[in-house]
Amino acid sequence: MMTQKTISLNEKSYKMLKKLKKENESYSDLIIRLCSMQDPFLKDPLLEFSGIFSEDNELWEEIEQLIKSYRASYLMNHIE
Q1: pLDDT tens sequence for the chain (80 residues)
Q2: How far apart are CA 12 and CA 20, in angstroms?
Q3: Where exactly are the structural domains of the chain?
Q4: CA quadruple 34, 39, 42, 44: dihedral positive or negative?
Q5: What is the per-residue burial (b if ≥16 Cβ within 10 Å, else e) of 15-47?
């Protein structure tokens, strides 16, 4: 049997947690999920962005060109 602990929250904290809580998610699971988002050993936050441009190649190509242009400009201005 799992041990249970009681914690006290002020009203504002409770309301914030309640907004974040998914349907059928316990508050314990919610807190674990939120803590995992902040702990790089439990979950890499950058993984949330993995594949973000997979369906919009035009946008990615535009961003890639901006990055290349910025890098080239930086190198031209900082190399003597």
Answers
A1: 678 889 999 999 999 999 999 999 999 999 988 887 765 555 566 777 777 877 888 888 899 999 999 888 887 877 65
A2: 13
A3: 10-48, 50-80
A4: positive
A5: eeeeeebeeeeeeeeeeeeeeeeeeeeeeeeee
